[in-house]
Amino acid sequence: MKRTTTLLTGVALATGLAGAAIADSHDPFQVGFIYVGPTGDFGWTYEHDQGRLAVEEAYGDQVETVYLENVPEGADAERAITTMILGGADMIFTTSFGYMEATNAVAAQFPDVLFEHATGYLREHPNVSTYSARFYEGRAVLGHIAGHMTESNTIGYIASFPIPEVIRGINSAYLHARAVNPDVEMRVVWVYTWFDPAVEADAAQALIDAGVDVLMQHTDSTAPQAVAQEAGIISFGQASDMAQFAPAPRVASIIDNWAPYYIERVGQAIEGTWEQADTWDGIGPGMVEIGEMTETIPAEVRESAQAMIDAIAAGEYHPFTGPINRQDGTAWLAEGEVADDGTLAGMDFYVEGITGEIPN
Amino acid sequence: MIIDPVTLIVALITISTPVLLAALGELVVEKAGVLNLGVEGMMIMGAVCGFIVANLTGSPTLAFLAGMAGAAALSAVFAILTQFLMSNQVATGLALTLFGLGLAALLGVGYEGQPIPDVAKPLPEMLRTIPVIGPILLSHDLVTYIAIFAVFAIWYVLKHTRLGLVIRAVGESHDAAHALGYKVIRIRFAAILFGGAMAGLGGAFLSVVYVENWVQGMTAGAGWIALALVVFAAWKPGRVLFGAWLFGGIAALQLRLQAAEIGVPVALLDASPYLVTIIVLVIMSSDRARTALNAPAALGKTFHATG
Questions:
Q1: Lower CB count within 10 Å: N or C terminus of chain B?
Q2: Is B270 within 8 Å of A205 when comparing Cβ atoms?
């Protein structure tokens, strides 16, 4: 097994060098981005595009970037990625979970092209890396604020697809809301889309009608913010700052800051030092940021939230620290035990206290 | 926890408004014998034009007019191609959707997240506080009332007026209508423009009132549901209203069932509007006589004036 790993690393190095060779043959180095939504969603895709612009800024004439918006997840993505490579891309960032199989399939056909797949776990070929952010660290902070802010003791959560990343976020938010407010309940609505403003707005309204007064979302558009504003409840920016809804309803936000990672990886690719990697960074390295906490949040809550941010950044606190039971009551983490990355990456269960069911 | 029927009804009426408007427009177009599959493209043009004008002028009225005008302009392209240049309606309609989505994305660059004025509700706040009746009947936006009024207006015009008779004649047999001296192409052109304006108003409602933002691809298939609705409703305005509320009701209900943590298979509920449409289509097509009565006989056929 160890030998295989070495071999793979060797191939990865060779591929890296090959990538560099290509870069020399046709300057500038072309980097492609595949987006699941429009760059103007002011959420998920917007932040990836900010990362792309940061790469252009950092390397100037050395790089050229191209991107494709609104690429459907699934088989169609394969065509989009291939088209981009045939157009001359040397490196491709595929920025949604659902591109996982497509990315690996295309990577097999183009061993000289480097692939970076966001939020996935499949690295079937030496030229595929995966990267994600520990959004659950941010969710912990938002959950903490939400637990303090809710008066109806009901928090609403607009969830996209029942995949580990989303379930992790729900669990993290719930645990930290309950820590400060034992009576808190979490209502989850699954919309089965990353981006559909009308459906997201419908879901927000449904949750508000069900009595929630704090709204969290794991979808990409700002539509739920507008509904929250109208209903006079509070909400949190998702993926991007969504500052246009501050100081209320948006009282804080999770910002995905991809720029440092993109700059680093593109730099390595240009130099030929790129290697296959599985990156999972959080608040500490700055991949996850908490947007400005507005005055709507009481000062002492802002302070305790900031303390949590600092503790997570310093590595002193892990949002999944035992004792934590699974939803069915069985023990998951013992007192003081910290969740391992493997379990977190494949999380397919709710923690104890959440009353809903994960759809299958 | 149980689901509050009042908020459910309010939600379903709001949710169904864009689709209802677009479907009513398409109904008139199809009654005139034209199949315009570009509803999605026209809706998104309405959404972007409405949003841009709302942002620039601050006037919701102008925004709705702009949404209607923008979508009608796009439908004019379809009308010129299919009526004067005799192009295939199905292919042209599909192309119109793709073109509309692209053009709207281009026009909307830079407008995402821009501020727009709040749209005031037409009836005074006081009326909305009346229990049950207030929220269900008196709390809606003007466009929603227009959509419901349009159901009755279109039913009346098609059924009881000379104009309606002419439109239906053109849709049933363009050759006969032509022989009687009616300007088939002119009437169809006007119907297509009307369909475009209605789809545009639906799109503008989505961006200016409902989501209060412009985002690319925001109609997300609403135009296709509108097309399905027309067939589902067997080209009857009253049934379009029923169908729109049924589809909207299912969408609103499934989200509320989830929020209330009532265990129902969400995927099944989500798919049910499409299942219902298929079932209705099967039932309709099993009875030839009834189909013949309902579907305009000249639907989708190109008219070429001879003699």
A1: C
A2: no
